[in-house]
From TrEMBL:
Keyword Magnesium included in the entry's annotation: yes
Pfam families per UniProt: NTP_transf_3
InterPro entries reported in the protein's UniProt record: MobA-like_NTP_Trfase (IPR025877), Nucleotide-diphossugar_trans (IPR029044)
Protein name: Xanthine dehydrogenase
Keywords: Magnesium
Amino acid sequence: MTEQYTNKIATVILAAGASSRFNGCKMMAKVLGEKSLLAHSVETLKQVTQAANIAPAAVVLGAHINDDIMTMTQGAVRIINRQWQTGLSSSVKLAVNYAIEAKSDALLLVLADQVAITANEYLRLINAFLQNKQTCCSFYQQDVGVPAIFLAQDFNALMAIEGDKGAKRVLKQHAKNQHLTILSIDNAACDIDTPADLTRWLSQCNKPDVSECPN
C-alpha cells in the first residue's frame, strides 16, 4: 500500500559537488562525534519529513560516491548527477525533475553542508510555506537563500539556471515582485566549504547550547 502524505512536498538534499575548496570529500567530514556531514544532513531531514508528514528526502550525489556514502544514504532515494562537473545548476535540475516525476506541488531544496540548521528550523520553513501558499525561503547574511521551498510554478525558472548557479536568482525575482515569504534563519549562514569552516564549526558551533554559528 502506498504511503499517504499530508502535503505533496518533495525534499531534495544537494550533495553532488566536488568539494574543491575542502581538498577532499567534505561529505565524509566528521561534524558531530563520529557522524559525517552527509549523515547528519540525511538524519536531520528524516526527522523533518516524518514530523511534517511529507515524503522522505532524496539525495543528489555526484563527485564522491563510495561504499560509505552509499551506507549513509541507505533508505533515501539516491539521484546520481553524472553531470556534476557542470555546476550546481545540474543538481537543481535533477531535483526539479524528481519533484515533477513525483507529482509534487512544491520542492524543498536543501544544501547538505548547511550543518547548523536544526530540524525545528526546517519545520518553521515548511509551516510558513503552508500558511502563505507561496515560494518560501531563508534569509541570512542580509540576503535570501536556501533552504527554500519552491512552488511547481517555479520549476521552469529553476530548469533555466545554467552553470555553477543555484536557485538564488529565482528567489530574488520573487522578492522583487513581492511574491516571496522570507524567514530569518541565521544558522543557514554556517556551511562547510573549507577545512577552516570545519575547524570553526568543531570549536565553536558543535556545542549543545549554541543556537547560532559564527560566520
